[in-house]
Amino acid sequence: MAAMDLSDGFDVHDYRAKLKLLRQDAGSMTLENREDLACPACDRPFERLFVTDDDRATFGSAPDGPICLARTAERLLVLTH
Questions:
Q1: CA distances, 51 to each of 9, 20, 22, 23, 45 (Å)
Q2: Cα torsion angle, 14, 79, 55, 52, sign
Q3: Cβ–Cβ under 8 Å, residues 37 and 3
Q4: Rounded CA separation 70/64 (Å)
Q5: pTM of the predicted structure, to 2 decimals
Q6: Which Pfam families match (predicted)?
Q7: Which of 74, 65, 55, 57 is nearest to 11 (CA)?
Q8: Are 31 and 49 within 8 A, CB to CB?
Q9: Strands, E, within the chain: which ranges?
Q10: pLDDT digit string (tens) for 30-77?
Q11: In which region does residue 73 sit, left (phi positive, over 0), alpha (psi from -120 to 50) or beta (all else)?
């Protein structure tokens, strides 16, 4: 299982063959993990990835499973399992 490497930040283009874009707006995007990439926080496969450059984010509903957070210098990543 390939792990996401955040040591140089996060660039979606590095993983575009493994992630499917579900939604995107000016400051955020939601992606689906299509190839069992490992979570950078817990090393387990994740289902969805929310990436934002914004200072704040609101979610309409909570996922059923665990949530992991990972931070780069420019982005916050929220991963659901």
A1: 12, 13, 12, 11, 17
A2: positive
A3: yes
A4: 19
A5: 0.88
A6: DUF7385
A7: 74
A8: yes
A9: 19-24, 28-33, 48-52, 67-71, 76-80
A10: 999 999 899 999 999 999 999 999 888 888 777 777 899 999 999 999
A11: alpha
